Amino acid sequence: MLGAAGPVVRDAPPESGRPVEVRDYETADEPSWLRCRALGLLDTSHGDEARQFKVRTDLELVAAGDNVVIGLLDVAVPGAEATIDVAVVHPDHRRRGIASALLGQALQRLERCGVHTVDAWVRDDEPALAWFARHGFVEAEQYLRIHASAEEVGTVLSVKHGLEPVAAVLHARVERETEMRHRFERVQVCRRMVRVLA
Ligand SMILES: CC(C)(COP(=O)(O)OP(=O)(O)OC[C@H]1O[C@@H](n2cnc3c(N)ncnc32)[C@H](O)[C@@H]1OP(=O)(O)O)[C@@H](O)C(=O)NCCC(=O)NCCS
């Protein structure tokens, strides 16, 4: 359903002199896809989310130079509402239009398939928020994501069935942000960014 009509070859980013190709993910990309994801998320609120294999999804695009993945975009397409699972560009290749090229290719295919809405959940990462805003995504809703440490978790969860919680990820309504920031060290606002397609 979401297959490419053909690979799109973009102009070379000015610094590298090598052409960058936007194309479908291939199984052979997995090692460099994982490296790109890990390095690209290091300086973000997702920095502690390591992954040792790629989770497959409906639309998987990569930007590759010399067959090395330097940008990636995964989109889940369960129906007419699609969700961007991940959009990452290697830190050495940012602000050269790579993520925008990936999104442009994805939107063309999604529109052809009758998708009418694309969304993404974004945390407190300014570059990502700026990038989504630049591409016409608007904030639709928010919630709090709380990473409770071993000490903090004991203040909200207790031993049950002989199992002692040592850490937890908790969700809360954004209206409770001030209270949650007093109680927990690591609180992130998660924003649903939405773009309606033509
Ligand atoms: C968000 C991200 C994918 C953008 O990739 P990119 O290839 O650098 O983006 P593009 O070059 O296509 O677009 C650049 C535009 O996005 C916005 N933008 C991107 N980074 C920005 C930053 N650090 N500060 C402000 N605006 C920024 C600007 O509008 C910019 O245009 P400009 O350079 O003319 O000012 C990249 O920063 C990234 O990988 N971030 C870490 C992963 C992440 O947080 N992903 C999103 C959630 S999964």
Please render the helix and strand layout as text.
Blueprint: E1 8-10, E2 20-24, H1 30-42, E3 59-65, E4 68-76, E5 81-89, H2 98-112, E6 117-122, H3 126-134, E7 138-148, H4 150-153, E8 168-173, H5 177-183, E9 186-196
Parallel strand pairs: 5-6
Antiparallel strand pairs: 1-2, 2-3, 3-4, 4-5, 6-9, 7-8, 7-9
Bound molecules: coenzyme A.
Residues 40-41, 44, 86-89, 94-100, 122, 125-128, 130-131, 134 line the site of coenzyme A.
Keywords: Transferase
Organism: Lentzea xinjiangensis
InterPro entries: Acyl_CoA_acyltransferase, GNAT_dom, MshD_Acetyltransferase
Please identify the oligomeric state: single chain
C-alpha-based Rg, rounded: 19 Å
Described by strand count, sense and barrel closure, the largest sheet is: 9 strands, mixed
Count of helix runs? 5
Helix content: 10-25%
Morphology call: globular
**What's the domain count?**
2
Average pLDDT over all residues: 91
CATH architecture of the largest domain: 3-Layer(aba) Sandwich
Query: What fold name goes in the CATH topology slot of the largest domain?
Result: Aminopeptidase
What's the helix-strand series?
Answer: EEHEEEHEHEHEHE
Number of strands: 9
Distance between the termini: 19 Å
**Could you name the ranges where pLDDT drops below 50 across 5 or more consecutive residues?**
5-9
Report the structural category: alpha+beta
